[in-house]
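The pair is quoted verbatim underneath.

:::
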Amino acid sequence: MSCCYSVLVPPPCPGSTLIIFSLNNISYHIMSLTLKLHFNLHHHANKNTIITNINHNTCFSNKIRPKTIYNTNPLIITTRKVDSIVMQGECCNMVIKSSLIEPDGGSLVDLVVGEGDRGLKKVEAESLPKVKLSKIDFEWVHVIGEGWASPLRGFMREDEYLQCLHFNSLRLKNGSLVNMSLPIVLAIDDETKERIGSYSNVGLIGLDGDLVAILRSIEIYKHNKEERIARTWGTTAPGLPYVEEAITPAGNWLIGGDLEVIQPIKYNDGLDNYRLSPKQLREEFDRRKADAVFAFQLRNPVHNGHALLMNDTRKRLLEMGYKNPILLLHPLGGFTKADDVPLDVRMEQHSKVLEDGVLDPETTIVAIFPSPMHYAGPTEVQWHAKARINAGANFYIVGRDPAGMGHPTEKRDLYDPDHGKKVLSMAPGLEKLNILPFRVAAYDTTENKMAFFDPTRSKDFLFISGTKMRAYARNGENPPDGFMCPSGWKVLVNYYERLQVEEQAQQPAVLST
């Protein structure tokens, strides 16, 4: 698959006026570009006096000073002092912070019990009927508890589930609408339902048997798997990874209720310091005095095409008048399909990208997004965008065929590769986001580097998909020079070498006769 990315731009100020600019044939190889920028008219009229001293050359050299980020504290990666930006006008007479975009529902949900109350909550949970969580269920507890799904406060009850399934949104009590495109539900079997009986609260148990949370004021309703699968993926074809892992073997009932997470979720895998909650991310953006935060989600290693798009995005933000845009490099950390590169390997590879200066460590935060992956295309990409709003990112880069995959039974893509960005521009509850489209990035064989695709010399470009990239590494082949930083590529090659050794060790011995 080729790489085509878009940026979702939320308005800098609430209540501002919508101004639509149309630009054609501009210099960054964009054939057509529509910027939907929300600016206060006073701000726009005084643009030159409001934002000054923008240096377009400080962060776009080919080689930026290396600085490791793969350490015990991902926040300690910069010492740059950034002056605050003061905006003029009625709606923006304040110091601009990265928390310009408010969480869905107006306030960030935090369902983790305070330290002083945890003992009592554990005692209470011990006395309740228990529901055992799967690994994916545990990841959803993490997601809900930290507020990624704000304003959702627990596993969905039936009315929330139906709104999500049929409308991709939730209607709040005040009449407002928030996007919610993926059902966040907890399945139980007949035996567990019987054991719960008339109880109104239940305890949730993790894989190791520890009490993780309490689910209160529960509601149990039928789990119509076929309807859920058809409406979420648009197909019931066999071979959908999330379906096979989490839905097919699940129980025939769903249990919803309000969640209380007994203590912060930990995985003890050496990466917990990178699992920054939305609250922590917002605090860090404010500490750095970011006036724009652009999030880039990925579940693959970072290649130079990704870096081109991220760096170009930052350059555009500077040209739009922002002074301190911060990149949130935000790899997905939950369930992924078996042939995807594991999280720990991806995190090591990402660290090499920053160490080699492909991305600037001083303007980048690397953190883990704890959500499991559905591979549900345009339906799922709405969830990815919504969750980053709750984390405080006011820009979102979206790629070609976001959250997509190949059809499980046919030789074609499951989703139209352009539908993800189109759906995001129309999705209910995401109206505050606007799309800034990029053209395709591919490998330019004449320049030996990743570049924006030029259709006038299409024969000069090589498209290297994530699948092709993984095949190169698995087979011990090197990609073209300039595709990925060498140290990052070495991480992938080493991983596949270890994997092959493990696979060979697991094969039964063949006795010679």
Remarks:
- The mean pLDDT is 83.
- The chain is about 30% helix and 20% strand.
